[in-house]
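Example 217, ligand iron/sulfur cluster.
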Amino acid sequence: MLTVNRQEIYRYLGYGMQEPDAEVRRAVEDCLTFLIPQLETREVHRAFSLQFTGRNTLDIGGLVIQSSALAKNLDGCSEVCMMAATVGFAPDRLSARAAAAGKVSRSLMYLAAGTALIEAWCDQVSGLIREEFAGQGLYPRPRFSPGYGDFALEYQQDLMQMLRVQKTIGVTLTESLLMMPSKSVTALIGLSVQDEQCTVSGCEVCAKAASCSYRRF
Ligand code: SF4
């Protein structure tokens, strides 16, 4: 069962930290009630060796990545867990159906809810990864996705190939680097012998962010 953060949905809908009125809140609940049973959550993850081969240059299982932000985040890690996850086509399908019926705000609500749901699913997968690697004395850093900082979006293609995501979880990439289903994520998670006790939701909500040199922003 996914724990969905309503405030995140309101934020994606443009309300910032404000609470929308009761009618909007009710409409969001309607969307979630209809959407959640149709989700097809899938994920794949796999650990790869990590080597620092030059200034801000990393070799992850043979994939060479140039990124200062990622190098900083993975500093001190010996391996990397590569992950891909999706909640399936339901958010895209329901959004398109609402748009075709002229229900624009409902269409946007399905997409906003889908974004909060894929984040919730990724948090759950990150928790599973933490449990899995704790037995090997390895502790995860927060997820770091292509497109974040100077980790170029183009690497998404490499991550998807290395995890064979089309075959394993049914996710594909368009020529313009958009994932289908759209509510899908690829990410790298550094594994370190040092337990920083990172939060699965990431550095943005971590109480230690102000003094942490590995934070992802
Ligand atoms: S800021 Fe928090 S979540 Fe981010 S790397 Fe540091 S300890 Fe981990």
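Summary: DSSP finds seven helices and eight strands in the chain.
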